[in-house]
Design brief:
Chain lengths: 169, 437
């Protein structure tokens, strides 16, 4: 993903959205991102998976991704074409899963200023979110260096492959 | 430098250096596990990172279970079960199958985890192992799949939120009531990114099966772990389970000058039975506030409150009684050994005579796909851990969370009932009644 994204639609959700809402339990028999993406937010907001397009964003309030550890939740967002998740705060396991998968996550207090349907773009290099509807730019919290390195390497899988390779030498 | 919390002590030991909250470490993992829902993705990650050289770092402490869709509730679930079995056979992992029970309970009662261990599970309730004095935490499938290959994983050393309860708990008040109260007080995200420590005389006097309840639901306030300092009770529990001796490191206790994010203190005498209203565990209220709420289904089970002592409390209340005519009750033991104790002690007879259904061990309707899902408008009172919208079925159903005693008392009247108004056994009575500890 480029450091600066094209503007894309923001799909705005509230506080405490748990992973059961992101991908309901009955769809967890699959591990395929595309198939999971077809059911993302299906019970909470059925129109999401029907109309979400590549290059769009999920924007949420506090404690996004709480509850179950299911990595199917961020995978469903990836499968649906979501480019990044911006929230006022994240639940821990979901946040970690996104970092591990290489899905950009931004902790941004300005998320509350974004309305559903606004066009936003992300500047991952300097950690800002631009709301084109309002002509405003919000700062996101910079990732700690350890996590930034993990993201820059493409997530935990490439990181681990390199670790295993160095142990074999 | 100030002293250290239990979380800091364990992560220091496992990363080989003295670390404090906020630092990032790579720490050695003692036990890793997954199940039939998060397993298939974990196996894909493991295969991808290991390539042609696929071996588990520690097969004897890699555990796979079949519990969420057990027995299989559809062809896709059955195929996932086969993936779990194939993985265990191919790489030599320890396997528990259909009917053996919920990962957390099976692992806790089988001696894999000792005080001071670092345990990761691809399931959010892996915090349960803090009831044994371990640092247990839930991770995703990528975390677990890579850690099973390398034997270690990255962690941010968490700050710690401490809850202390002193004194003697009143009758009718159990660990479940404490944890619902704690979650209600700090909120659903009150411990996000933090470890939770539970201490004080009331907590340290709780038997291990009750400590597991506190640890299990730390995730319901966002906690990364939930830990009770291990003591002689922990050792006795583990030795009774496995017949092997367990060493307790006297250093494995929080320092008096440890640095906490916050400490919440309670007097046990002030605490009362709690119920969490739909649709979030943080909606905890004293049982009196919801007394009389009509119930359609009662559910006894889960990794939170599906242990023998939990089902026994309910069986004692239902002994010789019948369910209220307007309700159904689903009982799902957390493990096969719980089921066997129920059989041996006549509890299944009690439940069936009262009109309840006893199912095979596993997650049951808490996973929302089988064994008693809720329809539109249904109201359930559950000894479970989550009551999110649609958690146990229809998005238009509602789930109230409570202790097994409150569930048992409510079954008699078909409405939420204060357990103190019926004869509620204490856990020590339960053990005495069984005739063996």
């Amino acid at each position: 993903m480029n450091d600066v994204t094209e503007p894309g639609r923001a799909w705005v959700f509230g506080d405490d959205i748990d992973t059961d809402q992101i991908i309901p339990s009955r769809f967890l028999v699959s591990s395929d991102p595309a198939e999971l993406g077809e059911h993302a937010f299906q019970d909470l907001r059925p129109e999401f998976s029907e109309t979400v397009a590549e290059g769009e964003f999920v924007v949420a309030g506090e404690n996004f991704g709480s509850g179950s550890s299911r990595e199917h939740a961020p995978l469903a967002l990836v499968g649906a074409g979501v480019d990044a998740v911006v929230a006022e705060s994240f639940a821990r396991i979901f946040f970690r899963n996104c970092i591990n998968l290489g899905l950009p996550v931004l902790i941004c207090a300005g998320a509350s200023q974004i309305d559903d349907g606004d066009d936003v773009s992300l500047h991952l290099d300097d950690g800002t979110v631009t709301n084109h509807e309002r002509g405003e730019t919000y700062d996101a919290e910079p990732l700690p260096q350890f996590l930034q390195d993990l993201v820059d390497q493409g997530g935990l899988k490439p990181y681990t492959e390199a670790k295993l390779a160095s142990r074999r030498e | 430098m100030t002293g250290t919390t239990l979380a800091e002590k364990i992560l220091s030991e496992k990363s080989g250096r003295d670390v404090r909250a906020g630092e990032y470490v790579e720490a050695d993992v003692d036990v890793g596990f997954t199940h039939d829902v998060t397993g298939p993705l974990t196996f894909e990650v493991f295969a991808a990172v290991t390539g042609d050289d696929a071996t588990l770092a520690d097969p004897d402490n890699t555990i796979v279970t079949i519990d969420h869709h057990a027995p299989a509730d559809g062809v896709e679930a059955a195929n996932n079960h086969n993936l779990v079995r194939e993985f265990a056979e191919e790489y030599g992992a320890v396997q528990y199958g259909v009917g053996d029970g919920i990962c957390h309970q099976v692992i806790a009662e089988s001696g894999f985890v000792e005080p001071g261990d670092l345990v990761i599970g691809a399931d959010s309730h892996s915090t349960t192992f803090g009831g044994l004095g371990a640092f247990g935490t839930g991770v995703g499938s990528t975390d677990l799949g890579t850690a099973l290959a390398t034997g270690d994983l990255w962690f941010r050393v968490p700050e710690t939120l401490r809850f202390e309860v002193d004194g003697d708990l009143p009758d009718g008040v159990y660990a479940k009531d404490l944890i619902l109260k704690f979650i209600g007080d700090v909120g659903f995200d009150g411990a996000t990114y933090m470890a939770v420590e539970y201490g004080g005389s009331a907590i340290q006097s709780l038997p291990v099966h009750q400590r597991l309840v506190l640890a299990n639901m730390a995730i319901e306030m966002g906690g990364k772990a939930g830990i009770v300092a291990p003591d002689q009770q922990t050792v006795d529990y583990l030795e009774a389970q496995t017949g092997e001796s367990v060493d307790l490191d006297p250093e494995l206790a929080p320092d008096a000058d440890a640095d906490y994010h916050a400490v919440h203190h309670y007097e046990a005498a002030d605490l009362s039975p709690q119920v969490s209203k739909p649709s979030n565990p943080e909606n905890a209220v004293p049982v009196e506030a919801v007394e009389g709420t009509a119930i359609d289904q009662l559910f006894v089970g889960t990794c939170t409150n599906g242990r023998y002592e939990d089902v026994r409390v309910v069986a004692d209340i239902l002994e010789g009684e019948e369910l209220a005519p307007n309700v159904r009750m689903v009982v799902v033991p957390a493990s096969k050994s719980v089921y066997q104790r129920m059989l041996a002690n006549g509890d299944i007879q009690t439940f069936v005579d009262a009109g309840a259904i006893v199912q095979s061990a596993g997650c049951g309707p808490c996973f929302g796909t089988h064994q008693g899902v809720l329809g539109d408008g249904d109201v359930c009172l559950a000894s479970a851990n989550r009551n999110f919208p649609g958690r146990e079925g229809s998005m238009d159903s509602s789930v109230y969370l409570a202790s097994p005693a409150t569930v048992g008392a409510s079954a008699l009247y078909g409405e939420i009932t204060d357990p103190r108004t019926v004869s509620t056994p204490r856990y020590d009575d339960v053990v005495l009644a069984e005739g063996s500890a």
